[in-house]
Structure formats: C-alpha cells, structure tokens
C-alpha cells in the first residue's frame, strides 16, 4: 500500500499541533502566514480536484434516487455510475491519497489560521 | 475502496455512491491582513496588498 500522511495515526496528535502554538508577536504571525501560504496552493488544487469528483457522483446519486428502480433509465444511471467510477480510477489513480492529504492540509491550515485569528483578536481588543 | 472487478450490480453501485458522495467541506479562505482592525494612526507598510483587494 501507499505511504500515508503523518496524521493518519489515530493515537498520536497531529504534528502541527505541537509545531504551531499561540501567536505572541507580529514576526511569529508573519512566519505562520508564510507557512500557511506555502501550502495553500497545493491545498486548493487538491480541494478542487476532490470537490469536482464528489460533485459529479452526488449528481448521479440524486438521479438514482429520483428514478424508480427497475426502469431502463434507472439501469442506465447505474451503469453511468460504474463507468464514471472506472474513469475516475483511471484519471485520478491517487484520488484516495489526494483526499487524505487534502484533509490533513485542511486541518493543519485551519489550525494555523485560527491561531492567527486569535492573535489578531487579542491585539484588536488591546487597542480598545 | 471498491474493487476493480465492478459489474454494475446494485450493491456495487451503492458502494461506489456511498464512498464517493461523502460530504466535503468548502475550501478554507486565505489569511488576510487585519487592516480593518488596525488604528489609522499606526500605519503598516503595505506588504500584503496582494491579499487586501486594493485594486482601484
């Protein structure tokens, strides 16, 4: 099997929790923001890729639910699901890894963003 | 994941749809400079104008 992202262990905390702690200075804010931006593009590309595939299958799922079982149309949509799945496996053989990586990046970047937002909020309050 | 020996029977389609329609959160937005919360008497150099949307 393929290598898995560092967060996949269920017993350990994700690595970024220890690495990124509360922001206490503008320099630290800047560093965190740069590290966020360094991975943000990769995150957006992976996110869009998974989103497109999920949307396509969600549409097919909705079609399946609308059609009465046993009809020709129902069977056709079922076959389309299978074809679409085969196509996806061919075009995106790393779909599962991409998705896991994207989930990891989502949580990590959300964590960094939250730390920066907390810092900004504390700073804003100290001025009022 | 569903195995590649897919035949198109109902169980297999259900499996595919179950796997492929798991909810997916909207993307995180970028980090913006908190310029609105900064007092005007204390201007910062505009390092981050590419994210601030000053296009006019």
Key terms:
heterodimer; A: 128 residues; mainly alpha; 0% strand; B: 56 residues; 2 helices
Task: Provide a concise account of the structure shown.
The complex is a heterodimer of chains A (128) and B (56). Chain A is mainly α and 128 residues long.
Give the secondary structure arrangement, pairings included:
The complex is a heterodimer of chains A (128) and B (56).
Chain A: H1 15-19, H2 26-66, H3 72-91, H4 95-127
Helix pairs in contact in A: 2-3, 2-4
Chain B: H1 10-20, H2 49-52
Radius of gyration of chain A: 21 Å
Terminal residue distance of chain A: 55 Å
**Can you tell me the overall shape of chain B?**
rod-shaped
What is the ordering of alpha helices and beta strands of chain A? HHHH
Strand content of chain A: under 5%
Instruction: Please give the share of residues in helix of chain B.
Output: 25-40%
Helix content of chain A: over 70%
Task: Walk me through this protein's architecture.
- The complex is a heterodimer of chains A (128) and B (56).
- Chain A has one domain (6-127).
- Chain A has 128 residues and is mostly helical.
- Chain A has four helices and no strands.
- The model of chain A has no long low-confidence stretch (mean pLDDT 91).
- Helix content of chain A is 77%, strand content 0%.
- Chain B is mostly helical and 56 residues long.
- Chain B has one domain (10-52).
- In chain B, 27% of the residues lie in helices and 0% in strands.
- Chain B has helices spanning 10-20, 49-52.
- The longest helix of chain B is centred in the first third of the chain and has 11 residues, at 10-20.
- The interface between A and B is medium-sized, with 36 and 23 residues.
């Amino acid at each position: 099997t393929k290598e898995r992202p560092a967060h996949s262990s269920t017993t350990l905390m994700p690595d970024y929790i220890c690495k990124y702690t509360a922001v206490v200075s503008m320099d630290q804010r800047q560093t965190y923001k740069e590290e966020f931006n360094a991975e943000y593009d990769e995150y957006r590309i992976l996110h869009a890729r998974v989103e497109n595939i999920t949307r396509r299958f969600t549409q097919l799922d909705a079609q399946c639910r609308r059609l009465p079982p046993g009809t020709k149309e129902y069977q056709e949509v079922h076959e389309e699901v299978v074809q679409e799945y085969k196509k996806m496996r061919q075009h995106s053989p790393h779909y599962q890894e991409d998705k896991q990586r994207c989930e990891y990046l989502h949580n990590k970047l959300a964590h960094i963003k939250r730390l920066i937002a907390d810092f900004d909020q504390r700073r804003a309050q100290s001025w009022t | 994941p569903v195995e590649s020996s897919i035949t198109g029977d109902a169980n297999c389609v259900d499996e595919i749809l179950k796997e492929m329609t798991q909810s997916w959160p909207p993307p995180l937005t970028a980090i913006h400079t908190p310029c609105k919360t900064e007092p005007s008497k204390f201007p910062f150099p505009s390092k981050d104008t590419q994210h601030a949307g000053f296009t006019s």
